[in-house]
Write a structure and sequence with these properties.
The structure is a homodimer. By secondary structure, chain A is α/β, with parallel strands linked by helices. The first copy, chain A, folds into 3 domains: 81 residues, Winged helix-like DNA-binding domain superfamily/Winged helix DNA-binding domain (Arc Repressor Mutant, subunit A), CATH 1.10.10; 85 residues, Periplasmic binding protein-like II (D-Maltodextrin-Binding Protein, domain 2, 3-Layer(aba) Sandwich), CATH 3.40.190; 101 residues, D-Maltodextrin-Binding Protein, domain 2, CATH 3.40.190. Helices cover 42% and strands 25% of the residues of chain A. The first copy, chain A, contains 10 helices and 13 strands. In chain A, strands 3, 4, 5, 6, 7, 10, 11, 12 and 13 form a 9-stranded mixed beta sheet that branches. In chain A, strands 1-2 form a two-stranded antiparallel ribbon. In chain A, helix 1 crosses helix 2, helix 1 packs across helix 3 and helix 5 crosses helix 10. The radius of gyration of chain A is 25 Å and the shape is elongated. Chain A starts with 6 loop residues before the first helix and ends with a helix. Chains A and B meet through helix 1 and helix 4 of A and helix 1 and helix 4 of B. Chain A binds a DNA duplex through helix 3.
Chain lengths: 294, 294
DNA sequence: AAAGATTGTTATAAAATGACGAACAATATC
DNA sequence: GATATTGTTCGTCATTTTATAACAATCTTT
């Protein structure tokens, strides 16, 4: 239990697993591949298990190696964070903050401007903003802060609600005039639909439930284009409210099924727990939550 | 940012902070105090901050040292857990599990029997059971599993609901006969009360709220003795239901204020996230939750 | 108040560990 | 089948870590 920890081996293994190659890892660490090779071997001996399948040309983690990697990497990140925390300046905020956000209007018009303003106010801080890649493994991620839609499954993360997104079904007045009446979701079957990544449209009204599986129509995974399509009278679109509130107010679009239950999706600000303890990260969190609330 | 991690210094510092002494830490690590002294000094140089106040006779963590210690220790535990996870036998469960539970009937009659049965079924497992010390710092604790009453504040922990404890106010039939009628909490002011650690008794009934601050009566921080006192007709006791359900069924005790809102406290099974990933810990968790539900 | 014991620090030498470069074996690519 | 690239092995060297012992500072004891 009080087994000695073979530190350098861990660092070597984590680096190799991160880079997927001894050569790259050696480069990144400023060390030699020979050294890394030996250390990973030693770590394997130390643990008594195999961590990597290695054929000279391909490197793959064993199942155990996979699990060990995730955990060890998290620990290494935590150690870095610990040092970061201890050395941070309590007064002035400084250092790097890496943010990942969903793209589209949310990222570009909601998040980005707030980040810019924050950076202007804290010249010691360096913000890096990336827009969402399909899967971001948050626990071991390279990000300090992630803006995500939907409920958070992983309970070990610090998740703060940022905003509530309401789903709306909209079409242009022209479209509605020129097509047969739409009063309930079932009527959608004969309509022209504009859909993005979500193909199953679910509706509820008290205990009444209705669901449509969108198969054909205009498909584009981009909210702005979907809005354009709806404005052009191409059909009925399912969109987050922030895309269309203006249009609805101006009467350029008309909302359908407004008498049905409102479907809301939370927008969360998520953070690995260790990172959340850094002053600068918490300050930016507060800033974002404050800024969005306005 | 990619600051090199001074591993050995971290191990030394964590051990010293844990033991509160260089000498003890050296003994525990099987190393020399001279070595530790130097490494902690090096770590401090490496971080550029002071971690310990040291007068030859007394050792104290600096504020920064305190924070750094908690985080670094968590990381070290995580690394140990990672090795533990990787080397665990996927088939047979084995290893140590350290459990901390609230005492009293819950610990002795609810938890302990289940642990015993579990251990009997898994001879490779070694269970250590301690009853609750007032404050157990779970994140950095030496426990794998903790049974706790009340809501869990720390969101970074895995907390599974185990049971719901209902608070009941009881007295013996004799007591009730021989004292003036009690129909609502305010009547308690003229009564003889048996109280434990909780001195403020709060009641609600819809929007009506009543609260009593117990100042005198019989004080004993032990549920069993409180029950005995109530049975003996000493007065009115505030007790968890599991102490008195039998007595209530048999008519040895009578419940008061049953028409008021029921106050329930959750009993949780709490676990540091890293530890929860170990087969044996998860197996015991499931076993407990399953066993209690019966 | 002074001696004694115990604590953390320093200094120096010995041991262990890590690091590098070159030669090597294995494999994917051309 | 030749070539380039990858990971491994080996011998050597540099660095780090460790231990022993002497030392200074403090608390305890008498």
């Amino acid at each position: 239990m009080t087994n000695n920890i073979y530190w350098t081996g861990i660092r070597a293994f984590v680096a190799v697993a991160e880079h997927g190659s001894f050569t790259l890892a050696a480069e990144a660490l400023g060390s030699s591949k020979a050294s890394l090779s030996q250390q990973v071997t030693n770590l394997e001996k130390n643990l008594g298990i195999q961590l990597l399948y290695r054929t000279t040309r391909q490197l793959r983690l064993t199942p155990q190696g996979e699990g060990y990697f995730k955990r060890a990497q998290a620990a290494v990140i935590q150690l870095q964070t610990a040092a970061d925390w201890a050395t941070q300046d309590a007064q002035a905020l400084s250092g790097d903050i890496r943010v990942n956000s969903v793209g589209g209007v949310i990222g570009e018009e909601l998040i980005a401007p707030l980040l810019i303003k924050f950076q202007q106010q804290h010249t010691g801080i360096n913000i890096q903003l990336d827009f969402s890649s399909p899967k971001v493994d948050l626990l071991n991620s390279e990000y300090d802060l992630v803006v995500r839609m939907g409920a958070m499954p992983d309970s070990t993360l610090v998740a703060r609600p940022l905003k509530t997104i309401t789903t709306r079904y909209v079409a242009s007045p022209e479209y509605i005039k020129t097509h047969e009446a739409i009063s309930q979701p079932d009527d959608l079957k004969n309509q022209s639909l504009i859909y993005g990544s979500i193909r199953e449209w679910r509706f509820s009204k008290g205990k009444k439930i209705s669901s449509i599986n969108v198969q054909q129509g205009f498909h584009i995974s981009n909210g702005r284009v979907m809005r354009e399509a709806a404005l052009a009278g191409l059909g009925i679109a399912r969109l987050a409210d922030i895309y269309v509130t203006e249009d609805l107010n101006q009467g350029l679009l008309i909302e359908l099924f407004s008498d049905w239950d409102i479907h809301q999706t939370p927008l969360h600000l998520v953070c690995p727990p260790a990172r959340y303890q850094l002053n600068r990260v918490r300050a930016l969190s507060d800033w974002l939550i404050n800024g969005v609330a306005q």
